[in-house]
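User: I'll paste a sequence; please echo it back and then give the predicted structure.

Assistant: Echoing your sequence first, then the prediction.
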Amino acid sequence: MTLHVRSEAWPRHERSPSRTAVVQAGSGATSRGGVRVPRPSARVIRLLRQSSGLIVVVFVWQLGARAWLGATTPAPTEVLSAGWELTRTGEIWQHLAASTRRVAIGLAIGITIGTLLGVAAGLARVAEDFINAPVQVLRMMPAVALVPVFIIWFGIDDVFKIALIIVAPIFPMYVNVFAGIRSVDQKLIEAAESLNLNRFELMRFILLPGALPQAFVGLRQALGIGWLVLVVAEMQTTPVGLGYLMNDAKEYLRTDQIFLVLVIYAILGLLTDLAVRLLEKRFLSWRNGFAGR
């Protein structure tokens, strides 16, 4: 005798879930009327969380400009309007291109010099004894104090501005690269020596990868300082650039354009920082450190 049991005889809540339901539950999808509706991914949620702080700042700025700060501080909507006006005329692109070119040249040269000095001082004590004292003395001099000296040396054209930007990132790169190399565990050095690695292989496989996390910290600091020094450099006599746009807006009391330039500086700094963080994910994927909770 064969016993046939209809599934409808069992209560609905006691039925075992189907394979499709298990797959949907595991993939984070929900079902509405038989149609799968994917839930927001973790990446989207993380992006919203990272943007929430800026959204709050802009919201408070908008309310404060209307309620507390008065006519001297433009609201974000007025800043956007000024940006659209300069974009429509094409003037903003001319200034942005000039500033970007200056900071790109200055940062490229300055970061290279700082990295080479840090590597040399980190690898050899003779180089450390020769390099460290002059670099530490120059590091204590603020970039603003060098402005009149550089104007005397290089004039007021782009050479002065680029030279000022070159100096700024040297010191954070030197300090962090040097500290990164010297913080490599001595046991790793002993293990490399037991494997008969030569000096080049020791530097390539042990020292430089071990110093890379600290070097990226220095790179983030160097990029931020480069944009700050660009502001100082372009506030001097210049025919084109974001600093010129700010000075011109100051003469005509265009506070909306002044704040527009400040916002552009902030966005450019944020973009460069994000670029470094992407490089960190690419080259430091081997690192298994604490990522927060």
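The chain is about 75% helix and 5% strand. Residues 199-234 form the longest helix (36 residues).
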